[in-house]
Amino acid sequence: MSTSTDFLLAIEDLTVSFDGFKAVDTLNMYIDKNELRVIIGPNGAGKTTLLDLICGKTKASSGSIKFKNHELTKQAEHEIVRTGVGRKFQTPSIYENLSVYENLEVSYPEGRGVFGSLFFKSTDKVRDTVLQIAEEIQLLDELDTEAAVLSHGQKQWLEIGMLLMQDPELLMLDEPVAGMSAKERDETAELLNRICQNRSVIVIEHDMEFVKKIARKVTVLHQGKILAEGAMDNVQNDEKVIEVYLGH
Ligand SMILES: Nc1ncnc2c1ncn2[C@@H]1O[C@H](COP(=O)(O)OP(=O)(O)OP(=O)(O)O)[C@@H](O)[C@H]1O
After folding, report:
1. Quick one: which of 93, 111, 66 has its CA closest to 161?
2. Which residues, 6 or more positions from 125, have their beta carbon under 8 angstroms from its beta carbon?
3. With contact defined as beta carbons under 8 Å apart, do 92 and 158 qualify?
4. What is the ipTM, given to two decimal places?
């Protein structure tokens, strides 16, 4: 099909139908290396389905998803994770009974899997990485705290930290600030602005105040297709976008 590109992620003619209903419809989208892209759009636009397709949770009906020029649509979820795609779902999947430190430690790639955990040694490298990520997600003072007692926002950051332990080149976050306090939202914006400096990040978000704090390029999805794409200011003033989404 298409030739090699310099894009980290190149999505072309991507379609998925559920019983004839096209949740994502001949979509083309290109993400640069170290780009932070925000995806907005009304309920049912296909945003979550798009992330499901990229991470392999849902199989495409047709079209192509190339990550570093490798086709992802034929790969299994765990293979896609290994190639460097991390995905955070809306509800945090942290280990409630483990400490912050342990949650990060078990997420280190070599520590994963049954055999990995059996032979896993907590080396200096793992410890250094845990400390560095804990600082990045502002949980350095909570290393020994059981994850269960963290605030909602801290749990979300911990899960982002667990993904960062795998050093993904593409990180995808679905509504990361849902349910957070205003202060936690601001801190999450700062966190995302920091972590996109050396990786690409795709964020789905409905909270426009938050989107304004992080947005560079924004893609507006509607009925499985791109309605508008560009700088936040342009998208915000686009009449079609106001009509189907922002005006509501
Ligand atoms: N596995 C599935 N089977 C059938 N229909 C599905 C499936 N997954 C998603 N859909 C449908 O596809 C459409 C797009 O859903 P999706 O969750 O991607 O939208 P969204 O843009 O993420 O919306 P929201 O903002 O509400 O999260 C919806 O109409 C949904 O009902």
Report:
1. 93
2. none
3. yes
4. 0.94
Q: Whose CA is nearest to atom 16 of ligand 1?
A: 46
pTM: 0.91
The structural domains of the chain, with segments of one domain joined by +, span 1-84+205-248
Q: What share of the chain is helix, strand, coil (3-state, %, to 5)?
A: 40, 25, 35
Q: Would you say the CB of residue 38 lies under 6 angstroms from ligand 1?
A: no
Structurally, at CATH architecture level, domain 1-84+205-248 sits in: 3-Layer(aba) Sandwich (3.40)
Give, for all 248 residues of the chain, the pLDDT tens digit. Answer: 456 778 999 999 999 999 999 999 999 999 999 999 999 999 999 999 999 999 999 999 999 999 999 999 999 999 999 999 999 876 768 999 999 999 999 998 864 444 555 555 557 888 999 999 999 999 999 999 999 999 999 999 999 999 999 999 999 999 999 999 999 999 999 999 999 989 999 999 999 999 999 988 999 999 999 999 999 989 999 999 999 988 76
Residue 221 alpha carbon, nearest atom of ligand 1: 21
Q: Which atom of ligand 1 is nearest to the CA of 58?
A: 1
Measured in degrees and rounded to the nearest 5, phi and psi for residue 188 equal -70, -40
18 within ligand 1 shell (Cβ under 6 A): yes
- Cα separation, 104 vs 164, in Å, equals 9
